Amino acid sequence: MNQEKKLFPYFQPIVGAACGSIIGYEALARQYDANGRVISAGALFSSPDIVADQLIAWDRSIRRQALQQFSESNCTGYLTINISAAWIDQLADFNSLPTLLMLEEFKVDRSRIIIEITESKGDLDKLVDIARVYRRHGLKIAIDDFGAGFSQLERVMAIQPDIIKLDMQLFQNAAKGGIASDVVHLISRLAKRTGCRIVCEGVETDEDFHFGLSCGAQYMQGYLFSPATAEFKKPMHYHRQISLIRKSFLDKTLVKEIQKIQFIANIKDLIELLKTALKTDFNLNRLAAHPFEKSGVLRFYLCNNDGDQISSNFNFADGKWFEDDTQFGFNWAWRPYFYQLLALESAQDSYRIVTSERYRDFNTDMLCKTLSLRLDEKCILLIDIAAEWT
Q1: Domain boundaries, the chain
Q2: Cβ distance 359 to 384 under 8 Å?
Q3: Most confident of the ranges 57-61, 192-196, 226-230
């Protein structure tokens, strides 16, 4: 039996977070090992000892089998098929693409096929051209392993994919917190702005699923549900499991939101105390007697209506207030939390507290937010707080 006949597709389900059903499958290459067990064919396709022409031929054979099985199944969702960006470089005629010919042969609805572009290699102009051809024929485009190796931002901007699949390692690291989590949240925001959908790969635990939900990911894929298998499952196969995971996410998140509300209430009480103190000859030592540090207040300072800082930073740490005048005279008018407050005042809504986005404080390395509010007609009060609950 030759190598080509030993290669075949398996199908890993992709589930929808909102609907709770299987929305599609990814076709993955499989082979038998020496003991007759089914294993991934990834090592075969990454081997430097096999020429590209042979790999392309094997890949097309697997793709053909996958499309035929998909066409003969009762599956009502999507099928995602992988195409190497490097192999696209070798296509001579974009008007006679093998995948389109297979779809025609098996009478597959093209709107149910997603072309997943793998690897960071490949000529970008050719990728843009072939993506345009596929879209013209009704197919959707996905970028695979986003966040692995090269950033792929240039590819995303050029191709404008319908779907971004997060790199498994990036996603699993992000679920643990830290900068990887910040990166995934940024990718999620990028996807929302471009109308792109996010698929989280490598979802293995309920916590992974929870993190995907917190990032706004619509689709999940991983061993929490199933590895790739030979058969297609009924669409509602994982519905109960997903419902329970969503419920546990809601319960867990609700506790955090209640804590957040209490945190904000405490901050507001301290802000009123601080405002009152600042309108008189305030005493830092007397202020230190209040639970500012425990409540997450890091520092405060004053600006004039032009955004110029007209006071020192009054920092709170280790139960004490202290002054730092290194930013005296700095201008913060270009920060959204400053000009948004002025805009609200112009609209006769001057009793709001404007909150910045989260950021990493340079001096303390803490995740922070800045609050801005009107102190009096000449001064604006700005307060940096820890963003743990906000």
Answers
A1: 3-237, 256-386
A2: no
A3: 226-230
